[in-house]
Design brief:
The protein is an alpha/beta fold and 324 residues long. It contains nine helices and 17 strands. It has a domain of 225 residues: Metallo-beta-lactamase, Chain A (4-Layer Sandwich), CATH 3.60.15.10. It binds zinc ion (ZN). Zinc ion (ZN) binds next to helix 4. The site of zinc ion (ZN) has 7 residues, from helix 4.
Length: 324
């Protein structure tokens, strides 16, 4: 069964452990249905206006339900992630803005950098992990992501699933924690929040109370099991973001729903601490993975990480690597 062989991102709360994962029946998800749908010429990306000048481009028909964001100022626009890369994203973005576009990735797992090669202005951290991932990910690593059962309505027309890979890209500017991106009328602060990956970022619009959380937090099964995940870093980063919650109006996560309650960040922060302290019983999965269920989300981690082992932080990783 699909749920037992692939650690689906999709399960939405409240899903009991072991419940059948019928994610296709859950899309479009309730929180997304509450947003204003924007009509675009695309049979793949579902576009929503989350806030004035903030668009979510959701790939709801593939089980990752990856969400890329277009944030528009008066002078330029920023893409926060570029999707899984199966269908070009730029033609959709160009229906939404004519402004010059810069790209920034929430992290460099495959499902967030897939469309990077379509753009020439890319901001990135200078970590060794990020550099390794700039080479792109080969088909062998991603084949399972485009297997028939990975789609709700079958593979999209025009997609070559047999050759699917992500293309190499290179940054035009190296950024660091605390840097800002001024779009004109909107200033975004870049927060380096390592943990999920060494190069995980969050994006803060302090004036509007918006925090883009990437894969550090979303209302579904949070993947924290690959060798490049560092749970010490993750706990620290969650604490840092949770401290912002009183000033936040909305979280804009990178999977499933384009809007989440900021208070969930605090719950997530507490959850990971308690999971690591052994306070909960997890459900064991294949490949040393173990899942812990909470009312609003789940944490999918791995035994080596819970035992304090550290994986390779330099080699790079698509986000799909199992522990040996
Ligand atoms: Zn992701």
């Amino acid at each position: 069964m699909f749920a037992s062989c692939v650690p689906v991102r999709a399960p939405a709360p409240p899903l009991a452990a072991g419940a059948a994962v019928r994610w296709c029946e859950q899309v479009p998800r309730t929180a997304n249905r509450a947003l204003e749908r924007v009509k675009v010429a695309s049979s793949w990306f579902d576009v929503y206006r989350v806030e004035e000048g903030v668009f979510a481009l959701i790939e709801a028909s593939q089980f990752q339900e990856a969400i890329s964001y277009l944030i528009v100022g008066t002078k330029r626009a920023l893409m926060f992630d570029t999707g899984i890369g199966l269908i070009p994203i730029r033609p959709v973005v160009e229906q939404l803005t004519k402004l010059p576009i810069e790209v920034l990735n929430s992290h460099t797992h495959y499902d967030h950098v897939g469309g990077n090669a379509e753009f020439d202005r890319i901001l990135a951290l200078g970590t060794p992990y990020t550099r390794a991932n700039q080479r792109g990910f080969p088909h062998a690593e991603l084949a399972g992501e485009v297997a028939p059962e990975s789609f709700c309505r079958g593979a999209p027309a025009g997609a070559d699933t047999a050759a699917f890979q992500t293309r190499a890209w290179s940054p035009s500017r190296i950024i660091a924690d605390g840097d800002t991106v001024d779009l004109g009328g909107r200033v975004l602060e870049i927060l380096h929040v390592p943990g999920h990956t060494p190069d995980a970022l969050a994006l803060l619009d302090r004036a509007k109370g918006l925090l883009w959380t990437g894969d550090s937090y979303y209302d579904a099964t949070i993947w924290l099991y690959v060798p490049e995940t560092d749970l010490d870093d993750y706990e620290r980063s969650m604490s840092r973001m949770a401290a912002l919650v009183p000033a936040l109006k909305r979280l804009l996560p990178a999977h499933n729903t384009a809007s989440a309650d900021p208070v969930h960040l605090v719950l997530g922060k507490d959850a990971i601490r308690q999971v690591r302290a052994g306070a909960f019983h997890g459900v064991e999965q294949t490949n040393n993975r173990i899942v812990f269920w909470f009312p609003d989300f789940a944490i999918l981690t791995s035994k080596p990480l819970l035992e304090g082992k550290r994986g390779d932080q330099v080699r790079g990783g698509s986000g799909l690597t199992a522990w040996p």
